[in-house]
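Module 6 notes. Inverse folding takes a fixed backbone as the condition and produces residue identities as the prediction. Think of it as a translation problem where the source language is geometry and the target language is the twenty amino acids. Below is one complete input and output pair. Work through it position by position during the lab.
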């Protein structure tokens, strides 16, 4: 007897299940996508990931570089249990590992930026059985000076507001201090005037008594 052939509905369901399983098993990469840094400084190329499988010794991380002005892709860094720095090329002695796989962080630091470091840096993570997924990209722009961003303007606004509040508090304290000082001076004058006024009244009283006696 011939076995029953799978139905179209069964094949469709199987395909949906396999697609969903592939999505769950894929490695997700997270990067800043675009980054700006000043020539001659160091920059951290941040790359984190999420994986369906637990992180183990099978984890591999590959960083590569594509120049902005074109040319072949270049090796930057490799990690498998231990970090492996490039032994030659433009990134020799200029890149160090700054990641922590247990925290799903596979970032690196690039030292002494140069203008020819402009380009796209790719971060690829494989954590078997999770070996599929998109490759993370960071477009690095090396500039003379960093342009002000919204964060800098926000920080400047907050700093200005705090400075204004401090000035207002100082003014209020000084005004209160001078008012108390003025009140103290007035009270002191009243204290000085009162004995003099009493003495004058006593003198007038004595003169009045004397005049009465003479009469």
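Target side of the pair, the amino acids:
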């Amino acid at each position: 007897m011939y076995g029953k052939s799978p139905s179209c509905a069964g094949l469709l369901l199987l395909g949906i299940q396999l697609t969903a399983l592939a999505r769950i098993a894929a490695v997700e990469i997270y990067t800043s996508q675009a980054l700006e840094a000043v020539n001659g400084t160091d920059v951290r190329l941040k790359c984190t990931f999420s994986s369906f499988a637990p992180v183990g010794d099978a984890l591999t991380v590959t960083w590569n570089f594509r120049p902005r002005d074109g040319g072949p892709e270049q090796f930057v860094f490799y990690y498998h249990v231990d970090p492996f720095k490039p032994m030659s090329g433009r990134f020799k002695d200029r890149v160090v590992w700054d990641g922590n796989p247990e925290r799903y962080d596979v970032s690196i630091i690039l030292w002494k930026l140069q203008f020819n470091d402009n380009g796209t840096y790719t971060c690829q993570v494989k954590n078997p059985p999770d070996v599929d997924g998109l490759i993370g990209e960071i477009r690095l722009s090396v500039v003379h000076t960093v342009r002000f961003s919204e964060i800098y303007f926000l920080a400047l606004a907050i700093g200005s507001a705090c400075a204004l509040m401090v000035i207002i508090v100082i003014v209020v304290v000084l005004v209160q201090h001078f008012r108390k000082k003025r009140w103290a001076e007035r009270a002191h004058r009243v204290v000085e005037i009162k004995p003099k006024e009493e003495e004058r009244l006593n003198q007038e009283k004595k003169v009045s008594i004397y005049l009465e006696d003479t009469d």
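Reference fact for the lab report: Residues 150-214 form the longest helix (65 residues).
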